[in-house]
Amino acid sequence: MAEMLRRLVSNESLRTLQEKLDCWLKEYNANTCDQNLNFCLELIEQVAKVQGQLFGILTTAAQEGGHNDGVETIKSRLLPWLEASFTAASMGKPVDSRIPSLQDTFDRERDKDSGPRDRDIEQLDSDLNSTRNQLNKVQDELKSLQAQEQARHRGSDGRGSEQRGSSKRSSEQRNADANYEKQLRNLKDEIAVLSGEKSTLRGRSTGSRSPSPDSRSHSRSRSRSGSPSTGMKVRTPSPNRSKLSSVARKAALLSRFSDAYSQARLDAQCLLRRCIDKAETVQRIIYIATVEAFHVAKMAFRHFKIRVRKSLTPSYGGSNDFENAVLDYIICHLDTYDVQSSVNDVIRAMNINPKISFPPEVDFCLLSDFIREICCIAFAMQTLEPPLDIAFGADGEVFNDYKYRRSYDSDFTAPLVLYHVWPALMENDCVIMKGEAVTRRGAFISRSRSPSPIRCALPRF
C-alpha cells in the first residue's frame, strides 16, 4: 500500500490538475464551447485516474486490516458519501452535506429499537432461568424415583427368579403334553385312514385281480417318494388337515409372506452384500429370485395336480367331488413337494437373466434358503380358492400407488419405476399386500446391462 501511495505522490497528479484548472480559468472566456468541453473532459479523466488510484489504496488498506478492521469506517464515511454523491448526480444537484445518509437513518432506527429489544432479552433471560430451575427440580425428583425403583427391583429379583423357574418347568410340561396329544391324534388319524383303505380294498377285491408282490412293492416305494403316480395307493386326506379352513390357511400364508419380506429378504441382502457393494444390484437380485420362485412353484403345482388327477381317477371316476378330492389330497401332502428341484430351476433361471450383472465368483446358491421359503409359500398359495399370485412388474412402468409403496430412498415426485424391491400380492385383481418399488427421474431410460459370460452359458430347462 505504501508503494502505491508513493507512486501517487511522485506522479504529482493533483499539482498538475491544479495547474490545468488555473490555465482553464484564464482562458475560459476566450475559448469556444468545444474547447471548454475538452478542457473539462480532460480534467474529469485525470480526476478519474487519481480516484481509481485512491480506491486501489483504499482496497489494499482494508485488506491489510483483516476481516473486521475498517468496517465501521467504511460504513460511516464511504457509504454515506457514495449515497449522497449518487443521489445528487441522479437529480442533477450538488452534494449537500445536510442530507441525512443511510448510516444516520440506520443509527437512529437502531437506537430507537434497542430499548424494546433489551427488555425482551431480559424477559427471555428470566424465563430461561425459571425453566432451568424447574428442569433441575424435575431431574432431582426423577433421580429419587429411579433410586426407589432400583431398590424395589433388587428386592423382587429373588422372587422373580423363582417364579420364572417354576413357570419354565410348567411350560415345558405343557409342551410335552401337547406333543404327546398331537402324536396320539396323528396315530388315530392314520389308523382311521388305513381302516378306510382296507374297507375300500375289500369292497373292490370282488371280481378284480390281486396285485402281484412286485407291483405292491413298487407301489409302496413310489408312495414314499415325493410325487404321486398312477401306480401308488390313494390315501384319504388326514382329518386334521382337511378340517383346516381355507381362511386359516390363507392367514398363515399371508403371515409367512410378510415374514419373508421383513426378515428373510433382509437376511438374503446381508449375504449378498458381502460380495456385492451396490445396493441396487442386491435388491434387483432378490426381486428376480422372488418372481422366478413364484413362476417355478406355479409350474410345479400344475404338474403335481396333473399327477394327482391321474392317480385319483380310478377311485373318483365320474364323481362330483373329484376336484375337491384332488385339492384336499394336495393340501394334505404339501410335504411331498420337491422344493429342491424348484430351487435349482430358480437358480438356473437367475443365472441367465440379463437384468442382473455381478462378479462371476458370486454364487446364487447363497440364496437357497430364501428361494426355498418363497417356493413353499407360492406352492401352498395355489391351493387356496382363489389362488394368490404376485403382480407383474416392469422397469420403467408408471408407478401404481394402489400396488406399491415407494422405498425410503426414492424420488417421491418421479412418476416412473426405476426397479422393484418386492412384488405385490394379488387375489384376482385385488391387492392383498403392497409391494415396494424405487422411483427416480429418468427411470424410462434403459441402461445397458451385460450378463456374466460364465452364467450365460448355463441352459434353462
TrEMBL record:
It is found in: Cytoplasm; Mitochondrion matrix; Mitochondrion outer membrane. Keywords: Coiled coil, Cytoplasm, Lipid-binding, Membrane, Mitochondrion, Mitochondrion outer membrane. Residues 105-122, 150-162, 169-178 have a biased composition (Basic and acidic residues). Residues 249-439 form the Mitochondria-eating protein C-terminal domain. Residues 92-133, 145-178, 194-245 are annotated as: Disordered. GO terms for cellular component: mitochondrial matrix; mitochondrial outer membrane. Its main location: cytoplasm. Pfam families: MIEAP. The keyword Mitochondrion applies. The keyword Ribonucleoprotein does not apply. One of its GO terms (molecular function) is lipid binding. Residues 202-214 have a biased composition (Low complexity). One of its GO terms (biological process) is mitochondrial protein catabolic process. Belongs to the MIEAP family. This is Mitochondria-eating protein. It comes from Propithecus coquereli. The lineage of its organism: Eukaryota, Metazoa, Chordata, Craniata, Vertebrata.
